[in-house]
Each structure stands twice: as structure tokens, then as C-alpha cells.
Design a protein that fits this description.
Blueprint: H1 4-32, E1 48-54, H2 61-69, E2 78-85, H3 91-101, E3 106-112, H4 118-126, E4 133-136, H5 148-154, E5 161-171, H6 176-196, E6 207-210, H7 211-216, H8 227-237, E7 241-253, H9 259-277, H10 289-318, H11 322-333, H12 338-356
Parallel strand pairs: 1-2, 1-4, 2-3, 5-7
Antiparallel strand pairs: 4-6, 5-6
The protein binds guanosine-5'-diphosphate-alpha-D-mannose and manganese (II) ion (MN).
Amino acid sequence: MVDALTMLALAFVLIHFGFPLLYYLYLRSRWLNRSWDLVRDPSYRPRVTIVVPTYNEANLIRRKLDDIASQDYPRELVEIIVVDSASTDGTPSIVRGWMESHRDFKVILVEEGVRRGKAFSLNNALRFTSGEVVVVTDADSLWISRDTLANALSWFSDSRVGAVTCLKTPVGDGFASVEKGYRDFYNVVRLGESKKHSTPVFHGELAAFRRDLLVRLGGFPTDIGADDSHTATLIALRGYRAIAADNATCIEPVPAKGYHMWRIRRAQHLIQHFTKTLRLLPKAPKEFKPILLAETWLHLANPWLLLLAAAILLYKALTGSPTAIALLIAGIALLLFKPYRTWITTQIYLITASIRNIWTKEIAWRKQEKACQ
Ligand code: GDD
Ligand code: MN
């Protein structure tokens, strides 16, 4: 006979795994393969300001600027701003060197005297931007194809689009394969959400925003870490679309060292973001509300159901319940399966991140070494 407490644990397990699975299946079957309800002009080329925030990126900044320069986009429509926050490894002088050898590009170097975090530096850069669209891109990311920028920006030809991000493919040794399993799942979710209305999770590899919307929002939020996702969500909350583009995929470098800390810090940022949007949920546009609700649940509440279920089962197992012992053993044995293991690890990151958020927000974070350099 299964007692009430064990039943409760089972219910938690069912919701914990069932909800994300149903959400994924719903997006995949109902939205993923639908055609976009947006009118995209592939030849649309708005004036663009590309902002690269840097903190100690001496190893990567040259490659990043070369990658931007190699984009197939009319040069006279591109402006690049590198905003550096008091790097100690000589990043600004490398940028100055690059500017010298690429006089055909309009490049502005903004140097901050003190480091106050990525979002703060973006707001500093915003004052110098003139493009119709502002693209923020991390120094360690690459855009893969020469069309990435043009592809991503073409979505702005539809005036309903307020923000665009890329899909991601992880690159690196070791943990990159873990990251890949996780990405395939999330790319489907991001795209499904975008076709339905908007995705509340944006990527630092390529996050493009209509400049006038950024100005209206008063810039990027500096009190939380996920500047890109939060800004995109605020834009979607205003009724514009904030989408992940299926014609723009970027390389996401996975750190060789400090992978766990990297995942926890990013989870912390997303939790900060979803906590901050909680009070705005009632105001969300009809199509976007269920998306925001689902993602908020997945980041803020769902992981805790797993922890609660595990705690109940452990308690029951210790007090001699054979059912609880069997369930715990099954739960552990399943770790042999990679997708399950990847999912459980993500839940552990999310729980650790919520706890860590109590004492540190990681606004100016420690840099992780990248594998693919
Ligand atoms: N100017 C400036 N000032 N740039 C910074 C600072 C800062 O204090 N801190 C980090 N950056 C720059 C880095 O140099 C890099 O170009 C970019 O911001 C992203 O930093 P990474 O250290 O590569 O962080 P990540 O890849 O783990 O961060 C990801 O998640 C964040 C949110 O959790 C990216 O997607 C970020 O864009 C995103 O904000
Ligand atoms: Mn990075």
C-alpha cells in the first residue's frame, strides 16, 4: 500500500517531469513547423550599431572584430562600438590596433575607468549608438556564417518585431557534448515560443534590439545579470515580438574550466530575470502570457518539486518504506541515461543558483576560460 506522503512525492515527480515535457511537445507539434506570421524582407538592411562589451578579452577580441568585419553587410551601414570596463590585460590597445588596420570601418572604443558589469557598460555604449538596430554580441562568440547579421536583421523589416536573437550551437571540449544535448531541446523551445509570440530567453552571442525601444526602456537593467533576456521580455510585454531567428545560428563557446560555476551563474541571472518579471505577468499580451508563465514556472518553481520529492522519498526510505527505496533506486539508476542526467544536473544548477542569489547576484562575474580559442 502506498501511503499519502509517497503519493505526494510521486505527484511532485509527475509534475516536475510532465510539465516541461508537455510544454516541449506542445511547442514542437503545434508551433515549430508552422510558418512565421511575420512578413520578413530578406533584403532589408537597416543601419546597425554592433556593441561588443569587453572585460579582459585580449585573447579573443581580435578574432571577434574580424568575424564582424567578415559579415556580408553594407559597410556604410555598420558601426561598431567596443565598450571596455577597465580590462587589465590590454584589451583596449588591441582594439586600437585593429582600428588602425581597419580604417574602412567605423569603430568607437568606449573605455570605462571602473568595472560595474556588462549591462552598465552597455548603457554607456548606448549613448554613442546611432543605428536603427543595436546588436549586442559577446567577445567570445562567433557568428558562423557571413549572412548571420543580415539574416537576423531582416526580421526587423516587420514593424512588429522589436528584438531578435540567434539559436545556439555549443563548441568546446568535454562539457560541450553535455551542453549540446541541452541545446537541441532548448532551440526547439525558443523557436516554438518565437513562432507563437516571443521567447523570454535571449542569447549574448547575438541580441538585437530596435534602438528606439531601448531608449524608451531607459537602457538595460543594471540590477540583474540577464540584461539581454530581460530587455527582450520587456519589449515582448509591450506587444512587440522578441524572437529567436531560425536563420541565424551562433557558436557558443563552452568553458574548459569552471563549467559548473558558469552554469550556476547563468541560472542565477535567469532566476533574477524571471523574478523581476513576475509582477508584470498580468500585463502580458495574450499569446505571450502562457509562455512567460511556463518559463517562470520552469525556472522558479519546477526544480523545487524534484528536491521536495527526493526529500520525502529519502525520509520514507530511511523509515523503512520499500516503495520509497525502490523509487529512489530507480531515480538513481536512470542517471545512466544522458538526457535524464542532463536534466537532473540542470535542476541542481537552478536550485543552487536560487540559493546563491541570496548573497550574490554576480553582476560583475568571474571570467571562465574558454576551450575553443
Ligand atoms: N564592458 C564589460 N564590462 N563587459 C563585460 C563585463 C563588464 O563588467 N563582464 C563581462 N563582460 C563581457 C565579456 O567580456 C563578454 O564579451 C560578454 O560580456 C559576456 O561575458 P562572458 O564572461 O563570456 O559570460 P557568459 O558567456 O557566461 O555570459 C552569458 O550569460 C550572460 C547572462 O547570464 C552571455 O550570454 C551574456 O551576454 C549574458 O549577459
Ligand atoms: Mn561567454
